[in-house]
Amino acid sequence: MSTKKSETRKFLEKITGGPVTLGKLIESIRLGEELTQAHLAKKLKISRSHLNDIEKGNKAVSPERAARFARALGHSEERFVELSLQSLVDEAGLKLKVDVKVA
Questions:
Q1: What is the sign of the dihedral through the CA atoms of 24, 98, 103 and 62?
Q2: Nearest to residue 25, comparing CAs of 99, 75, 92?
Q3: Which of 4, 64, 76, 78 is paired with 103 by a 20 to 30 Å CA distance?
Q4: What is the DSSP string of the chain?
Q5: From residue 51, how far is each of 1, 66, 102, 103 by CA, in Å?
Q6: 40, burial (CB in 10 Å: exposed 0-12, middle 13-18, buried 19+)
Q7: pLDDT category, 65, cuts 50, 70, 90?
Q8: Is the per-residue pLDDT at 2 higher than 60?
Q9: What would the pLDDT profile of 8-21 be if each residue is shown by its tens digit?
Q10: pTM for this one?
Q11: What is the DSSP string of 24-43?
Q12: Do the Cβ atoms of 70 and 80 come closer than 8 Å?
């Protein structure tokens, strides 16, 4: 992990109060762009309640959907997919760290 990526992750963990998750990342993007959940949900082509569940960590996001969200928001597919996969690994109780690289 590069120093810049590490510093960014530490900053996000500090302001979100815990590990960076896909839901927290999406919420941070939404708040940073001053969008309502309804507006962002429409942009992502999902319901507002589904977006709320993702932001709160109550719904998992598949790697394919995470990549689609990244494209819709103009962000790194690599990072979104990495966070999606990490949540699946964490839910399985595995003590592993996911690192996704562009092929």
A1: negative
A2: 75
A3: 4
A4: --HHHHHHHHHHHHHHTS---HHHHHHHHHHHTT--HHHHHHHHTS-HHHHHHHHTT-S---HHHHHHHHHHHT--HHHHHHHHHHHHHHHTT----------
A5: 29, 12, 26, 29
A6: buried
A7: very high
A8: no
A9: 777 767 776 778 99
A10: 0.85
A11: HHHHHHHHHTT--HHHHHHH
A12: yes
Report the distance separating Cα 40 and Cα 68, nearest Å: 13
Residue identified by tokens 């760290």 is 97
In the block, residue with structure tokens 């990342």: 25
Q: Quickly tell me which residue has 């598949």 as its tokens.
A: 62
**Distance (Å, rounded) from C-alpha 84 to C-alpha 77?**
10
Residue 14 CA to residue 32 CA, distance in Å, equals 16
